[in-house]
Amino acid sequence: MRQQQRDLGLLMQFMRDFNERQSQLFFLVTTFLVRYEPPELQAIIDDDVAEAVTALASTYEAASRGVIYEPRPASLPADRLANALKPLVAEAGQGGGTSFERDAATVLRRVGEALHSLREQEPDQHRAFLDLLGRVIRKTEGAGSDRVGLSLDGPGAEAEQQGARRSRLIVP
How crowded is residue 62: how many other Cβ atoms within 10 Å of its Cβ? Predict the structure, then answer.
């Protein structure tokens, strides 16, 4: 229960002062990270995510100023992740213009900051941020379900509340 409260507290801290669109984009990105399955079954680590979101944030910051600039992450897993995440963010921002590009850059930078913050708190954990997201954002049950939800239950709640309604925030 304490772990769940700590995780949710950290997630809310990362989202501090976000407007509604930035919050939605944050959940879109983090949900994508939870569901992301890298090719060739090679697991990604927080450093790969940090490289990917930093590169994308630089791209969106430059685009908001009218400049085309696409830095590439140094590692192959980070590059693959950035290439998978880029169309998702671009689709979310269709018609948003420079204000969306600024929001996207802000959110991606904040994800990078969250990764670095957790890395400082837990230097031996290479998947601290991804594990936190996995504990908080879970796939919604159901055959063929492609939705995920923000879990507001404790770790043992599923066994205790079998058949009972659980509080979940559903993110498309």
Answer: 16
Alpha helices in 65-160 (DSSP H): 76-92, 97-121, 128-136, 157-160
pLDDT of residue 114: 94
Residue 64 is predicted with a pLDDT of: 92
Rounded to whole angstroms, how far apart are CA atoms 57 and 52? 9
What ranges do the domains of the chain cover?
Answer: 2-133
The alpha carbon of 145 is separated from its chain's Cα centroid by a whole number of angstroms, namely 19
Per residue in 62-116, pLDDT tens? 999 999 999 999 999 999 999 999 999 999 999 888 899 999 999 999 999 999 9
Give the H/E segment covering residue 52: helix 46-64
Helix (H) or strand (E) holding 75: none
- Condensed to tens digits (0 to 9), the pLDDT of residues 20-51 reads 999 999 999 999 999 999 887 788 999 999 99
Run of H or E including 151: strand 148-151
List of residues 6+ apart from 16 with CB closer than 8 A: none
- Cα distance between residue 25 and residue 30, in whole Å: 9
Neighbours of 171 (CB within 10 A): 16
DSSP label of 37: -
